[in-house]
């Protein structure tokens, strides 16, 4: 198997793992300073960095295919989560309530997660390519930071509004959106140099292979 295929399989696997982990741990709320966020915020931004690496090395079409793989994996997780909830446990298994607590998400939260995932991932591809398309500016660190400013705003708004609109006052929703946006944006921009180095390393490997 060529190195390019090996790297693509690795990146796709990492992307899918990040998406699945994010969905599983999204139900836990944590504090980072004054901010109250879901635990998934600490890992979910990695998915955008990985998709940006795939976009830069393998192109937009491949990045979109990987996003679809992540969505399919999330859908399978939802189906089996409901199986975990509704399938009767063995008489000797006394941890069923714990499983139900972990895997039981409302349909509204699931819908919010799906909508936020699709809208943010495709926005990320568009925004990451925009500086290169308009100004022929190829600096990956800048393009990733630029795309994250837009992408994390879209992701935070879609998820919070779809999940909680009508359940909390508007000022509470605004604080939730702002908290998620600031933390995710900071983590995403922090990852920019790593993304830049990863792209250069993979491209150098391909050039050496040729």
Automatic annotation (TrEMBL):
GO molecular function (one): transmembrane transporter activity
Top-rank taxon, per record: Bacteria
Database matches in InterPro entries: YhhQ
Record field: transmembrane: 7-26, 32-55, 67-89, 109-130, 142-166, 172-194
Cellular component terms per the entry's GO annotation: plasma membrane
Cellular localisation: Cell inner membrane
Function: Involved in the import of queuosine (Q) precursors, required for Q precursor salvage.
Record protein name field: Probable queuosine precursor transporter
Species: Thermosipho africanus (strain TCF52B)
């Amino acid at each position: 198997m060529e190195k390019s295929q090996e790297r693509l399989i690795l990146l796709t696997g990492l992307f899918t793992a990040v998406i699945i982990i994010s969905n599983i741990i999204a139900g836990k709320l944590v504090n980072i300073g004054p901010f109250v966020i879901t635990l998934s915020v600490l890992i979910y931004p990695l998915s955008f960095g990985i998709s940006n690496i795939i976009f830069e090395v393998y192109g937009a079409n491949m990045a979109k295919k990987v996003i679809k793989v992540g969505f399919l994996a999330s859908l399978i997780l939802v189906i089996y989560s409901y199986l975990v909830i509704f399938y009767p446990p063995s008489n000797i298994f006394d941890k069923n309530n714990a499983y139900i607590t972990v895997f039981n998400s409302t349909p509204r939260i699931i819908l919010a997660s799906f909508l936020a995932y699709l809208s943010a991932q495709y926005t990320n591809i568009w925004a990451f390519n925009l500086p290169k398309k308009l100004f022929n500016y190829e600096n990956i660190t800048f393009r990733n930071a630029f795309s994250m400013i837009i992408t994390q705003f879209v992701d935070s708004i879609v998820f919070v509004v779809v999940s909680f609109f009508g359940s909390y006052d508007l000022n509470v929703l605004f604080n939730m959106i702002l908290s998620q946006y600031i933390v995710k944006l900071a983590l995403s921009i922090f990852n920019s140099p790593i993304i830049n180095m990863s792209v250069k390393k993979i491209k150098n490997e391909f050039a050496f292979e040729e």
